[in-house]
Amino acid sequence: MSEILNLLSYTFMQRAILCGIAISFSAALIGVILTLKNYSMIGHGLGEVGFAALALAMALNLPPIGVAIPIVIISAIIIMFISQKKGESADIIIALVATGALAIGVIITSATSGFGTDTYNYMFGSILAMTQSDVILSVIITVLSIGIYLVFYNRLFLVTFDEKYAKASGISVTFYQFLIALITALVVVVGMRMMGTMLISSLIVFPAIIAKKFTTSFKGLVVMSVITSILCFLIGIFTSFFLNMPTGAGIVLVYLVLLVISTICCKLAKI
Amino acid sequence: MTILEVENLEVSYSNHVALKNINFKIQEGEYVCLVGENGSGKSTLVKTIVGLLKPDEGKINLNISLDEVAYLSQTNLKDLNFPATSKEIIMSGVQKHKTLPFYTKNDKKAYEEVVKKLKIEELQNRRIGDLSGGQKQRVLIARALIRNPKLLILDEPTTGLDYNITRELYQILDNLNKEHKMTIIMATHDIDELNEVKPRIICLAREIKYDGNIEGWKGF
How close B80 comes to chain A (CA, Å)? Predict the structure, then answer.
């Protein structure tokens, strides 16, 4: 315990925890909608887009987040738009966007700086290197996601549960798809610093999948996902620090262990 | 009073004409069944009336506010395994033109009334996926009825339901039409159980093949 308290006295750790809680909170919120709408892989796809955007920013010596935010938002809207309006499967579009973006990122990286520490950090995360501006951005995005979620909670529920009914009721489904795409893109961009482009989708998918096993209501699912997400993040960051593991991978490992335990518990409870 | 008027309607999907030359009027309090074989255009007509599809030609004149129309879409009830309680689903029916994240006293009162009317009080806190086909369909009807609509439009509501549940569902609709004077338009392929109700039949085969009372209808 004293070791944990000692660890918390470091500024880099305080920043990491504050950022991590904020990102875990917003990722869990949006993850509930994305997993229920069968867009689970969108976080992974946008992570790859983020990688290409960061490679471009590094090549042009531009601010990474400033370049990544618009590119990832536009990609998220394109994925949502094509799957909604053109009726293409979301999986196919995400796979095309993800592999295309990764290829572009690899070409830019190898043609310029090569695969150095910066590239590695963006691919697998560097939560302990979070700056003050990362903390501010994470908190802003979390407040924005919570605000949108609260204000539009009932309509987001309706659009997620029964899009056809929502449309027939005169609700602009496209507007809510746009909101979902916007929050997803922002969470992915900020989460990339913490988890890396390769692991960011875990923050979106795991909490909702684990929470779904223990709740019967949508409201319960939202609350439970947020609690699971923050809890796994805290266990993951301390475990990875003491066991000298990469933090992002450590958090995913905690999710995996919890998923296995919860699945076994649910199966046993049904016997 | 004419509640709905369809004039020279034509709808097509990628160069395939699904409906053409559709003309009819529906009066307040009528019970209308849209019948026809698979691919005859029943669901297309329903979707066009509620605004999910755009007509290529013709007009749909709705003489009541869109807020007074409730729609029950064709749902595969077996796939309805969403993590939400019946109460959450029914309450989502009041969401039209409402963006506030909370419900008013009137919304709660309407909820109490509709669950009592459909006798589903004991299902309120159960997950939709854990209910039987008939119970799920009642919950979806309750969602449609919570705003006390004047016009209820249903698209194949008995798909996947067994004989007894189908009869039960038709009794609910019969009651809504007789006692609450609700206008009902229902796309269905299964009208053998409807003889007690005596609905008006509109038989489709891309065009209207028959429009009249059930006694005069001689099948597809």
Answer: 9
Q: Pairing mode, if any, of strands B151-155 and B2-13?
A: unpaired
Residue B165 has pLDDT above 60, yes or no: yes
Instruction: Tell me if B92 and A154 make a contact (CB, 8 A cut-off).
Output: yes
Give the nearest partner residue to B95 out of A151, A155, A218, using CB atoms.
A155
Residue with the two structure tokens 């029916």: B93
CATH of B66-149, one of 3.40.50.300, 3.30.565.10, 3.40.50.2000, 3.20.20.70: 3.40.50.300
Query: Which of A217, A223, A266 should we substitute to test contact with B (largest number of B Cβ atoms within 10 Å)?
Result: A217
pTM, whole model, 2 decimals? 0.86
Each residue's pLDDT tens digit, A203-230: 999 999 999 999 989 999 999 999 999 9
Which residues are bridge partners to B152 per DSSP?
Answer: B70, B184
Strands of the sheet with B57-62, listed across from one edge: B16-27, B2-13, B57-62
Map residue B155 onto helix, strand or coil. strand
Phi, psi of A198 (to 5 degrees): -80, -25
Using CB atoms within 10 Å of the CB of residue B164, give its burial: 0 to 12 exposed, 13 to 18 middle, 19+ buried: exposed
Among B80, B92, B137, B141, which would you mutate to test the A interface (most chain A Cβ atoms within 10 Å of its Cβ)?
B92
Among residues A250, A223, A244, A270, which one has the least CA distance to residue A25?
A223
Which ipTM score applies to this complex?
0.83
The rounded percent of chain B whose pLDDT value lies above 90 is 41
Residues of B with CB under 8 A from a CB of A: 50-52, 66, 71, 73, 75, 82-85, 88-89, 91-92, 95-101, 125-127, 130, 143
- For the record, the structure tokens of A236 come out as 């993951």
Domain ranges, residue A53: 2-265
Q: For A153, which of B101, B126, B127 is closest by C-beta distance? A: B101
Quick check: is A271 in a domain? no
CA distance B95 to chain A (A): 7
**CB of A252 within 8 A of CB of A196?**
no
CATH class of B1-42+50-64+194-220: alpha beta
d(CA A131, CA A61): 19
Instruction: Return the percentage of chain A with pLDDT > 90, whole number.
Output: 36
Classify B22 as helix, strand or coil: strand
Q: Dihedral sign for Cα A13, A15, A16, A22, please.
A: positive
Find, in chain A, the residue whose alpha carbon is nearest to that of B52. Answer: A168
CB pairs under 8 A between A and B: 73
User: CA angle at residue A72 from A69 to A76, to 5 degrees?
Assistant: 135
Q: Is there a contact between A36 and B127 if contact means CB atoms under 8 Å apart?
A: no
Does A218 contact B84 at a Cβ distance shorter than 8 Å? yes
